[in-house]
Design a protein that fits this description.
With 240 residues, the chain is α/β, with parallel strands linked by helices. It has one domain: Spore Coat Polysaccharide Biosynthesis Protein SpsA, Chain A (Alpha-Beta Complex). Helix content is 28%, strand content 24%. It contains 6 helices and 11 strands. Strands 5-4-1-6-10-7-11 form a 7-stranded mixed beta sheet, sandwiched between helices. A two-stranded antiparallel sheet has the order 2-3. A two-stranded antiparallel ribbon has the order 8-9. α2 packs across α4 and α4 crosses α5. The radius of gyration is 18 Å and the shape is globular. The termini are far apart.
């Protein structure tokens, strides 16, 4: 674990930030609005995704990376929340995360930890934030939410026929939040990009640099909205 920053005004431990990259256009949703601005009930998906972090007492600030041409974010009441920090998003998710991490470091968060969460995961439990924080003590390389695969996993070839079956006992499906030391994650993303390796999530950047993040069991409820069917499932989940 990184050494404690003596300049932390809140406590002897590192502060915890949340970071949501929200600069995407959500093309797979076939909607005129970016998917994070579609509504479930009386709130947008993005507002639902932000809510647990904004109300959680352990989260110091919430950083959201927004497309520079975004006209919708300033219209949301949450954009002026005292815990909110807005930064400019990038062309790719990793670019948006890098911009957010740079802002956190500029605000004195060099030795802090950050939870990176998908803007399109509106069904997160506060319990899972708690579990990630508890796991930090034994996971200096970071920790992510994930769920074990209960389905049989197949590998296909170019003809979309089955090549082989993978032992599902070792397969986990990554979720967010993904929780890492700020400086360590920022360097991992920078180095992985310079090596021209693909970054699919924050854990993949850490893995590429030789780190071994731990897994904390998440929930099937914590779905990522990418298609219309997901929106229906999330609506049901949030209404329960």
């Amino acid at each position: 674990m990184p050494e404690t920053s003596s300049s932390n005004p809140q406590s002897a431990e590192q502060r915890i930030w949340a970071l949501l990259p929200a600069a995407g256009i959500g093309s797979r949703m076939q909607s005129e609005l970016p998917k994070q601005y579609l509504e479930i009930g009386d709130k947008t998906i993005l507002e639902h995704s932000l809510s647990n972090f904004l109300k959680h007492p352990a989260i110091y600030k919430v950083v959201v990376a927004i497309n520079p041409n975004d006209q919708h974010w300033p219209q949301l009441e949450v954009s002026s929340h005292p815990k909110m920090v807005t930064v400019e998003g990038g062309a790719e998710r990793a670019d948006s995360v890098a911009n957010g991490l740079a802002a956190i470091r500029q605000m004195g968060g060099e030795d802090d930890w950050v939870m990176v969460h998908d803007a399109a995961r509106p069904c997160l439990y506060s319990l899972h934030i708690d579990n990630l924080i508890m796991a930090r003590d034994t996971s200096p390389d970071g920790v992510i939410l994930a769920i074990p695969s209960f389905d049989t996993v197949k590998v296909t070839n170019n003809q979309q026929t089955i090549d082989k079956t993978i032992n599902r006992e070792k397969i986990w499906l990554a979720q967010t939040p993904q929780f890492f030391p700020v400086a360590k994650l920022a360097k991992a993303i920078q180095d992985t990009k310079q090596q021209q390796q693909r970054i699919t999530d924050e854990a993949s950047a850490m893995e590429a640099q030789g780190y071994h993040p731990a897994l904390v069991v998440g929930s099937k409820r914590n779905i990522k909205i990418t298609e219309q069917e997901d929106l229906i499932l999330a609506s049901i989940s949030l209404s329960i």
